[in-house]
Design brief:
By secondary structure, the chain is an alpha/beta fold. Helix content is 34%, strand content 21%. It contains 10 helices and 13 strands. It has helices at residues 3-17, 28-34, 60-72, 86-91, 106-109, 157-164, 176-184, 195-198, 230-245, 248-257; strands spanning 36-41, 50-51, 57-58, 75-80, 97-98, 112-114, 119-128, 148-152, 169-173, 190-194, 209-211, 217-221, 224-226. The strands form 5 sheets. Strands 7, 10, 11 and 12 form a 4-stranded antiparallel β-sheet that branches. Helix 3 packs across helix 9. It is elongated. It starts with a helix and ends in a 14-residue tail after the last helix.
Length: 271
């Protein structure tokens, strides 16, 4: 076993033993008897979650949650959550399910349970059609000392750059608007991020953008339920399968993103 593998296992073991005490989740029978499903949605991730003109939480995740509730014949209660709150709200039994780009990871799977995938996220290269330091037509073109990359701190593109474009100049900023501004003003040439995070903000800048066709990595996003709440998770899996099979998920995706999912979900009845 390599040193990296040992460190990774130790980290996972430490995470598992550091779990906070959980408030008991509402099982399926309780959700049905109360006729209410509480869904945590992050309204700061448009179009996954957003505030509409009536200051109500809306977006892709809200439409998905409404359809789940309709198919379960219960009322939907949307609870606002932020990215750091998503898992703690589940563990404290303040919500029954959580949406909001909660990418499936081993670390998260230690503390919550996931449904089958709801959608995917695809890591891509965003650049400009013209005006870059060197032509950027493939991801390999980024590995050039003349290329200036700009990234939001802590995002998934950074490890990929370290492994695949180590020669590029990299500037780390705190948020997406600052990154897009740097690109639009010619202070950077490209960024590496998930298409779902950049496709909407990029429209706010009058630049002829280009997203390279090659997907660098795909991430799978499910709906989270409290660890061990298998009665609710099992029904959600069936509901999601039917929502994929009927085309509801893809239709709703295109309603908000204006384009099909970059990495389609190969829905499967076995789960």
């Amino acid at each position: 076993m390599s040193a990296f593998d040992r460190r990774h296992l130790f980290a996972l073991a430490a995470a598992a033993t550091a779990l906070p005490a959980l408030a008991e989740a509402r099982p399926l029978a309780e959700v049905l008897s109360s006729r209410r499903l509480r869904a945590g949605i992050n309204p700061t991730l448009p179009p996954m979650g957003l505030f509409n003109e009536r200051n109500q939480i809306d977006g892709f995740d809200a439409d998905i949650a409404r359809e789940i509730a309709r198919r379960m014949n219960v009322e939907l209660e949307i609870v606002q959550v932020g990215s750091p709150d998503r898992i703690p709200f589940l563990q404290a039994d303040r919500i029954d399910i959580v949406l909001g780009s909660i990418t499936r990871t081993v670390e998260r799977a230690l503390v919550i349970d996931y449904t089958v995938p709801l959608h995917t996220q695809s890591m891509v290269v965003l650049t400009k059609a013209t005006g870059t330091a060197v032509p950027i037509n493939t991801p390999a073109d980024l590995n050039n000392r003349a290329v200036r990359l700009v990234q939001v701190r802590g995002t998934v593109g950074i490890p990929w750059i370290q492994a695949n474009a180590a020669q590029a100049q990299v500037t780390l900023l705190d948020n997406y608007p600052d990154c897009f501004r740097a690109l639009a003003q010619g202070r950077a040439d490209a960024m590496v991020d998930v298409a779902e995070s950049v496709v909407i903000p990029m429209r706010n800048f009058p630049v002829q953008w280009k997203i390279l066709d090659q997907v660098l990595a795909s991430f799978w996003v499910g709906i989270g339920v409290q660890k061990g709440n298998s009665s609710l998770r099992d029904v959600l899996n069936v509901v999601l399968f039917e929502m994929h099979r009927s085309g509801f998920v893809n239709t709703t995706w295109e309603k908000y993103f204006g384009t099909p999912m970059t990495t389609p979900i190969p829905f499967n009845p076995m789960f």
